[in-house]
Amino acid sequence: MTQRLFTGLILLGFLVSARGEDLNLFTYKQPHMGTEFTFRVWAEQGQVEDLTLLSEKAFARVAELNQIASDYLPESEINDFARAPSGEPVPVSRDLYRLLDLSAQLSRETDGAFDATAGPLIRLWRMTKKNRRLPTPEQLASARARTGAGLLRFDPVARTITKLSDGMLFDLGGIAKGYAADAALAIFREGGFPRALVGASGDIVVGDPPPNEKGWRIGIETLHLGDKLADLQTVTLANRAISTSGDTRRYFELDGIRYSHIVSTRTGMGLTERIGASVIAPNATTSDSYATAVTLLGEKDGLQFIRNKREIECQIVALRNGQEVAIRTDGFSRFEEKKAEEKSPVSAP
Q: Does residue 81 sit in helix, strand or coil?
């Protein structure tokens, strides 16, 4: 049977109207950042016009952040920054400064496992997948020389960033979607609609619970489900976020070896260890980046990293001898809906 690690998050349904309250669930969807962003908001029927305007504002904010953070858009702010001369302070937007600053902090905490400056390694790996030839030691050495959070200097007062090396490239794929999801949810909250959810592929952030519910029910897809939604592991969240990171759908094989789309800064190549992570955090910026970091750190180091954090919980699924094995932080289960015959996951090694 095909093994499937974490592949995504599924919002489980509610009644379309709430008993005792004149509320309905409204859904808005648009493609952004290479995926589909979904907004689900509880509101009164008479509030539809205001809600629609807010959803347009939230989608516009996501599009703005994509223009800032995407390494695929030639004229994005992050690519403009990459082309700027090294050794000179470069003024950047508040959003780009925060994204790179947060990424640099996480890079230091993970000893470089998570690194937004790993663009040279990631571009090299994209060429590997396209040409189906592994990079040479010389190519890897050149990419590594232009990679590292220590090659950036931040000035929070002037809001400038200085690059200390030529040829630096950036990839914010491990944090930008979560950051955009948080920004969109903030618009609904500030607009008077706190009962809202924002989903972006493997990242979901939620506000207040739906009417008459403890929270939003979200399914974590972990095993080979087929059409059996009943087999989903389910968590219930309010005013929190959850993100998954894994290699189930995005990978390729070369010379009999399966490589993930997730690139290790230690090897410069896609991960070969089958691992997926699901992180629950107060916001999606954190859950998105931490889920990526845990996947890159691996089971033991990833779990230890999360255990040193407050208000963060994590579940890791790894492939051992062809079988999926789950390990988790102690507090993860308090968000989970237990099944009658569910077996507890194994303890961390």
A: helix
pLDDT at position 125 over 60: yes
Q: Which two tokens stand for residue 56?
A: 């347009």
Two tokens at 38?
């979904």
pLDDT tens profile 210-235: 999 999 999 887 534 344 444 568 99
> Which residues touch 349 (CB under 8 Å, ≥6 apart)?
299, 300, 327
Residue ranges covered by each domain of the chain: 77-163
Q: Per-residue confidence at 11, pLDDT binned at 50, 70, 90?
A: low
CB atoms within 10 A of CB 248: 18
Chain-centroid distance, C-alpha 12:
20
Contacts 24+ apart (CB under 8 A), 271-274: 271/247, 271/295, 271/296, 273/298, 273/318, 273/319, 274/3, 274/5, 274/247, 274/318, 274/319
pTM metric for this prediction: 0.88
Count of residues making up the chain: 349
DSSP type of residue 298: -
Tokens of 164: 């200390």
Among the four given CATH numbers 1.10.3980.10, 1.10.3720.10, 3.30.1360.120, 3.30.70.270, the one describing domain 77-163: 1.10.3980.10
**What Å distances lie between residue 172 and 21, 51, 207, 285, CA to CA?**
41, 30, 25, 11
